[in-house]
């Protein structure tokens, strides 16, 4: 069992426990500790009760149809996501604010549920006018502006499938995702702001669009209302969002969507070079995100909910858009960087909008720690009542800092474990019930059947193993886009009929789960998921590179950083310039989240006799550990040489 991200000694030296305070417990949405047993006794009945809190156009005939590993939830039911996130709030919450948006440059916009409804209806009509029909894929490549929410909900209104591509991804990454999903329309923007700079998304998209014949129309949002001069528009194909919106009706009747029709696909990295399109359907996904938002975040009518994730990742889908809006909440959306113009930007936003629930990532918390508490003290954070963490294991030091400096020791912290594939949070404290421990995501959400299993599928009561989900849950992925085979192989083949998540975990004497990081070749770089093979493909795409091997090394702030071992092709010679050039090349191929931290040139890579690169050894070298067993290596001297070379670089 590899234990890459956090060592258990570090995790467990913080021994304090944090039971819920009495005042919090008494007002919590869920207070009954027996809920776990009740849900486990009848999971289908339990999930059906949750689903009934949504608005259905036709009730389901059957809660679950399970042909492992293929699940159908709420079979026969008809539902529309945009109706649940918008229309159904209009009677009571027409004038309640749905979105409080702040741009990086300080501009602000707000949308009530009534206003959001009109925007969603109009854009749904724009999509229809541009030929998009139920089932068609729409690619969305936008900055964190309100239009990203509007575009997703508009797709769901007419039964189109959205495929959001993170705005920080490169043109090549966008192209690959458009091609795989066969998207017909792209929504993008002239630019977005990040750390005081404009990111020209449409220009980047144009690079992709020369190779994506499936795209017939492009709708371009003018970030500042008026089209920027730097934005080239191609006649007949490219249309300005604001022009289009003015030319359509303000009302678009919602389609009655089958519970099992696709709501979206979202690409995420696995162990191969090619990202996979995770498929989420409508009824089950909405049920999962609705339920978890209500209980994990203890969401109430007057809360102001801020999940800092970009909508380009699943956290933004589930906890900026669908979960909170299905609950009729007010969400905060911020476009830019936490340290722009100064390192107190997040705290200023919390003060300004009186944020009550704040959900962010350990990598951000570690950056705040490094910047220092003086930035926090510049703002009034007294509105906060609950904090959340997601994306990677949170180290106890960061947890305690978060608790003390941000939560002022009065806010419960929910450390939530889940994945793009799981759709919603699966492991988490319930803030009115659970005693938390810094570094532990504690227990499965009620209705989720999770275990720790070893390689042979035996249950581990106390100790280490892999996290396994033994029963289907409503918001689970249904398959991979156009790739059932890979779906079965990737997630359901380690043990029969049991979901393999790819995470190492330890369960303690109280039954609490401690996540230890990925056990496969998936990296978490500042919480972002990237496969080592993707980065390796980007390297070998450069003419100077013959072969490369990429591993993760622990990083104080990012959690993990990329170390690459590269062999060169004649006549290329190692040089500092080539290192920079290769780093830029990887950024250009994938996006800046994949920028390698360190590149090491070598004449050979350590391989087994059958030719497999031994990443474990490279990882040991990258973290400066003593070498493990090298007896299966074809040429053990390769790795010894590499280690000496690496150490001399580190020393110099
Ligand atoms: C991987 C999934 C789903 C939210 C965003 C990430 C890691 C996520 C935690 C946590 C320990 C965590 C796991 C998981 N992860 N949350 N609270 N504690 N690890 O989604 O990009 O699909 O990544 O993130 O390794 O497998 P994702």
Low-confidence stretches: 1-6
Write down the Rg.
Answer: 24 Å
- Net shape: globular
Our count of helices gives 22
Number of strands: 31
What is the mean predicted local confidence, pLDDT?
95
User: How are the strands ordered across the major sheet?
Assistant: 13-12-9-7-8-15-16-24
Helix content: 25-40%
Largest beta-sheet details: 8 strands, mixed
User: How much β-strand is present in the residues?
Assistant: 15-25%
Which structural class do the helices and strands define? alpha/beta
Bound molecules: 5'-O-[(S)-butoxy(hydroxy)phosphoryl]adenosine
Please give the alpha-carbon distance between the first and last residues.
Answer: 33 Å
Keywords for this entry:
652 residues; alpha/beta; 8-stranded mixed sheet; 7-stranded mixed sheet; 31 strands; disordered N terminus; binds 5'-O-[(S)-butoxy(hydroxy)phosphoryl]adenosine
Give your account of this protein's structure.
- The structure is a single chain.
- With 652 residues, the chain is of the alpha/beta class.
- It has 22 helices and 31 strands.
- It is globular, with a radius of gyration of 24 Å.
- The site of 5'-O-[(S)-butoxy(hydroxy)phosphoryl]adenosine has 21 residues, from helix 13, strand 21, strand 25 and strand 26.
Can you describe this structure in just a few lines?
The chain is α/β, with parallel strands linked by helices. The protein has 22 helices and 31 strands.
